[in-house]
Amino acid sequence: MKRILVFAAHPDDDIIGCGGSLAKHVKLGNRVSVCYMTSGEAGSLDYSKAELARIREEEARNAAQVIGFQDLTYLRKPDGHLEYDQCSLKKLVELIRKKQPNIIYVHHPSDGHPDHRATFQLVNESLGRASVPLFQEYRGTPWSAETVLAYEVWTPLSDFEYVEDISEFIDKKVAALRKHESQIKLNPYDEAFKGLARYRGTMTGKGKYCEVFKVIKISKLS
User: Fold this and answer.
1) What is the pTM of this model?
2) Would you say domain 3-217 falls under CATH 3.40.50.10320?
3) What residues of the chain score a pLDDT lower than 50?
């Protein structure tokens, strides 16, 4: 069994970026955990921030159940104003040490959304700090993930090194995306990201539906 840890700026980013791969991990018996940096409370004008945060956290739980995992962490940083700061860095370092993941998924560094880029910056720095026996302010035993893969959400990757065939799991991915009802009603991105997966499959020749990733660090994925 491998331990998988996903970092997502908002609820739904995990399913958009690597939901099919997560469903495959679940089928293989791997343990999946997800950390949401914000609760997505800026994602609609139809609700107060507090109400939308509650709704979107519940939607994330419902989506996770479709894929088959339930270990979720909400850091509740301000949506739309995520920053590289020492408090967030400490939480991520300690989470990596606690979960001891073999594989980490995170937003790619050139994503057009500032929260997505900030998430990558925080995670990238946390990887190094979590792995060394330094920094007395961080709790936990040092840990180094074997593999780190960066996924696409807001901005499609122009260059990628790893392709995952998710053809068997595309229906689960789309069903999970549709649990994010507060967002789907604003923009039917379930259809858009199914189309992107089909495009990735066609253009890479690796399967009917695929997810692609930028490799930040890699050892062995199987």
Assistant:
1) 0.95
2) yes
3) 222
